Amino acid sequence: MYQVIRNTKYDFIGQSYSTVYPNLHKYPATMLPQIGIEILKELNVKSGRLLDPYCGSGSSFACGLECSLTEMHGFDINPLAVLISKVKFTKVSVNKLIDIKKELRNNIYEFLKDEKNIKTLQRPQITNIDFWFSKAVIDNLIVIKHFIEQIEDKNIRRFFLIPFSETVRECSYTRNNEFKLFRMKSEDILNFNPDVIGVYLKKLEDTIFLYSNFYFPKLDDTVNVDVKYSTFKPQNEYFDIVLTSPPYGDSRTTVAYGQFSTLSNEWLGINYARKIDGMLMGGVKPKQNIQNGIIADYIAEINKVDNKRALEVSAFYNDLGNSINQVAKSVKKGGKSIYIVGNRIVKNVQLPTDQFIAEKFEQNGFKHIITYERALSNKSMPSKNSPTNEVGKTVNTMLWEYIVICET
Ligand SMILES: C[S@@+](CC[C@H](N)C(=O)[O-])C[C@H]1O[C@@H](n2cnc3c(N)ncnc32)[C@H](O)[C@@H]1O
């Protein structure tokens, strides 16, 4: 058993993400930057190369910036996550953003004066488009996208896609307060008539405000955050510090990153958007359950009641384990890894992911330093699910989070 210490310092009760770094775009299961900042300070990390192999919307880079790190590398296979991370940590001129916003606004209203104009634009390839969007919303989104595509500067174009993606979600028939894709009730649809252009321009203004106040001032010319749309690619003894919050289970039965991002990704031109959850960690089932190590007994317990679930869980830990093998190789001697995870419950069995991570790093020549337990109160993720799949029967999936620290 790798030592776990309850540490209330990391609870950050009552604090939210926006207390230090407001997010520019909603994303599921974001890591509270306060945790990463505090742990980097505690470990006295002030320089070196940082890696986040599952970077999502990029909280770990915010932590790195706060602790004076200038070179950071991230990977994610959800295109929306990569877009958000890139925009937050790419330096663009705020004056240019404001000028192009004005120009875009004028162009859009000018274009809309003649209804015939819309017919000249191509409809995007969105699955069941009429199920998720009204005709008026589709037309307006097409016009906005058309003018965003005209922006020459690639970084600014990307910036303008952030509020576009938020507008796609907000103006669709999805229930906005949920991460999974659910359609509104029919009676709500009847009264749903959003002012798409107005929503977009307001979101654009808000995004520029947040970027210019919270991100831009920290992005001096020495900062280099490189985010790749890919699974992690190992580089021998290259990184000094790994800071990450990996998924805590496969995407189908835990947080559906792909599903959350589907409509945005499709509007952004990703034609395999609906396949993303199957591509994420734990997406492909193995033939056999994991037989070795700490996790094997827990999976065997699940297997007694549900073989299919046991294989799904095995798939996830196979992927997480293989990824840790690659990550471990890529850390320099003296480097540290910090993984922030939850131990989820499947079929009433609580899976010790924190222990699994410590064990995998130790198998790769690292030494487990400490694991802190923190009360989970801030993460935007479902705290309850139905692990027995009996309707109405729910248990808390996670009340604690674990900060697993290892050193090589
Ligand atoms: C818990 S989230 C990370 C959240 C991030 N810390 C933040 O604050 O936004 C986990 C991320 O892992 C990504 N992911 C899942 N499987 C992956 C894989 N095999 N390779 C790279 N990224 C993956 C998901 O798309 C998701 O963005």
Q: Could you characterize the architecture of this molecule?
A:
With 408 residues, the protein is of the alpha/beta class. It has two domains: 4-79 and 222-265 and 277-407, Vaccinia Virus protein VP39 (Rossmann fold, 3-Layer(aba) Sandwich); 94-217, no CATH class. The protein is built from 15 helices and twelve strands. The strands form three sheets. The chain has an eight-stranded mixed beta sheet with strand order 1-9-12-6-5-2-3-4, sandwiched between helices. A two-stranded antiparallel sheet has the order 7-8. β7 (345-346) and β8 form a beta hairpin. The two termini are 19 Å apart. 45% of the residues are buried. The site of S-adenosylmethionine (SAM) has 21 residues, from α2 and β3.
What's the architecture of the largest domain in CATH terms? 3-Layer(aba) Sandwich
Indicate how many domains the architecture comprises: 2
What compounds sit in this structure? S-adenosylmethionine
Output the CATH homologous superfamily of the largest domain. Answer: Vaccinia Virus protein VP39
Low-confidence stretches: 378-395
Average pLDDT over all residues: 92
* Main pleated-sheet profile: 8 strands, mixed
CATH class of the largest domain: Alpha Beta
Shape, please?
Answer: globular
Tell me what portion of residues adopts beta-strand conformation: 15-25%
